[in-house]
Specification:
The complex is a heterodimer of chains A (about 45) and B (about 400).
Chain A: H1 2-18
Chain B: H1 3-30, H2 36-63, E1 66-67, E2 71-72, H3 95-113, H4 123-146, H5 150-154, H6 162-180, H7 196-215, H8 223-251, H9 256-270, H10 279-304, H11 312-330, H12 333-336, H13 346-377, H14 384-389, H15 391-396
Antiparallel strand pairs in B: 1-2
Helix pairs in contact in B: 1-2, 1-3, 1-7, 2-3, 2-4, 3-4, 3-6, 4-6, 4-13, 6-11, 6-13, 7-8, 7-9, 8-9, 8-10, 9-10, 9-11, 10-11, 11-13
Classes of the chains: A mainly alpha (about 45), B mainly alpha (about 400).
Chain lengths: ~45, ~400
């Protein structure tokens, strides 16, 4: 059982190494992006 | 009476109690924002309803004096004939501690089924279903396996409820999903989770509560409880990593939902085995649970087109079946007194198979009959316009989010 358990865990590690790197998702607006000032408001 | 064991079992019961609201969070995060309260309510109301049913007749039917191997007698209706100082045979705990511990098992089992009919079941039908199911399905099954019934006599192993809880609820979920029909737009519109943070919170609390579920099933603060605690944790860990890895390879990203669902699958898989298998076997069981349950979700949703909304059968049914059979494969007499196939006792696998088939058949047929009867009294699902409005508003007149 011990060997089988190691094989299971090793297969996960192998999976992480071989897992594809997906293309990044399209940029979403976050708080780090510059905000567009509303008309009439004071400039930042 | 042993005060240490008693304290341990009472705390374990409280941990298992926490699992039902945790299940509400787990499911609640997976549904549309207009149905989150109704989904939480399914779990919360079940906690209240089944607690009363258990005291009035559920415990007696499950653990009363055996009647033909099928059901318990009415000796303990309303918990009469149980004095505070009565000690449970073969243990050092009061019978009342066992009543409370088992009550929480009875509570969570019908709550698990609610994931199958989320976002469309009429609340009245849900209430009647839960009342009937806990009486006519859960109590007899608990008697068969734990209460001295025929599966107990047959030698079936179920440490903490793989057969009684997970297989039965998983099969009931399939029947309920089929009889209610799919949600409007199923297969055409994506049913994305509305708040995965709730789901991960729920999964974390379920994992926490599961220590009470499995370690508490030793009914004593002893080495077997500690063993069950450790194998429970490692199986959950392997389930989480396996599901996440398979989903990463298949869909290109390590899914957070996959890790949460995988942890639950691993926990389900180890439940019947926790007091019978070694730690290495628990790693294999967690691995298998993550793998099999992941592919079961795909099979049910994309090939069979069954709208088991929150994958109850894929996780609890398939995980429960795997756990029950794995107990017959990996059981080690050095842990729990019985060997499985890999330790030279092939008969145990046959016994586990028979118990699994019996639970599937009984829960399936009874769930079908119960829903058919309820359908004569009230509609099982809400009308289409109410489904579009959302169950929070149409069934409860409340909203989870104001904006």
């Amino acid at each position: 059982m011990l060997i089988a358990a190691f094989i299971c865990f090793a297969s996960l590690i192998l999976g992480w190494l071989l897992a594809p790197t997906a293309a990044p998702t399209p940029a979403v607006e976050t708080s780090t992006q510059p905000m567009v000032p509303e008309p009439g408001s004071a400039p930042a | 009476m042993n005060s240490g064991d008693t304290a341990f079992v009472l705390i374990a019961a409280a941990l298992v109690m926490l699992m039902t609201p945790a299940l509400g969070f787990f499911y609640g995060g997976l549904v549309n924002r207009k149905n989150v309260l109704s989904t939480l309510m399914h779990s919360f109301f079940t906690l209240a309803l089944v607690s009363v049913v258990w005291v009035l007749w559920g415990y007696s039917l499950a653990f009363g004096e055996d009647r033909g191997g099928l059901i318990g007698g009415l000796d303990f209706v309303g918990l009469r004939n149980i004095a505070p100082d009565d000690v449970l045979e073969g243990t050092g705990i009061p019978v009342m501690a066992f009543v409370g511990f088992q009550m929480m098992f009875a509570v969570i089992t019908p709550a698990l089924i609610t994931g199958a009919f989320a976002e469309r079941k009429r609340f009245k039908a849900f209430v009647i279903f839960t009342l009937a199911w806990s009486t006519f399905v859960y109590a007899p099954l608990a008697h068969w396996v734990w209460g001295g019934g025929w599966l107990f006599e047959f030698g079936a192993l179920d440490f903490a409820g793989g057969t009684v809880i997970h297989i039965s609820s998983g099969v009931a979920a399939v029947i309920a999903a089929r009889m209610l029909g799919p949600r409007v737009g199923f297969g055409r519109k994506p049913a994305d989770p509305h708040n995965l943070t709730l789901t991960v919170l729920g999964a974390g609390l379920l994992w926490f509560g599961w220590f009470g579920f499995n370690a508490g099933s030793a009914l004593a603060a002893n080495g077997l409880a500690a063993h069950a605690f450790v194998v429970t944790n490692v199986a959950a860990a392997m389930g989480a990593m396996t599901w996440m890895t398979v989903s990463w390879i298949r869909y290109g990203r390590p899914s957070v939902l996959g890790a949460a669902a995988g942890a639950v699958a691993g926990l389900v898989g180890i439940t019947p085995a926790a007091g019978f298998v070694g730690a290495s076997s628990a790693i294999i069981i967690g691995f298998g649970a993550g793998l099999f349950c992941f592919f079961a979700v795909d099979l049910l949703k994309q090939v069979i087109k069954l709208d088991d909304a929150l994958d109850v059968f894929a996780v609890h049914g398939v995980g429960g079946i795997w756990g029950a059979l794995a107990t017959g494969l990996f059981a080690d007499a050095a842990i729990g007194g019985t060997d499985g196939l890999f330790f030279g006792n092939p008969e145990q696998l046959w016994i586990q198979f028979v118990a699994t088939v019996a639970a599937i058949a009984f829960a399936g047929v009874m769930t079908f009959v119960i829903l058919k009867v309820i359908a004569l009294v009230t509609a099982l699902r809400v009308p289409e316009d109410e489904e579009a409005l959302g169950l929070d508003s149409s069934q409860h007149g409340e909203l989870a989010y104001n904006s």
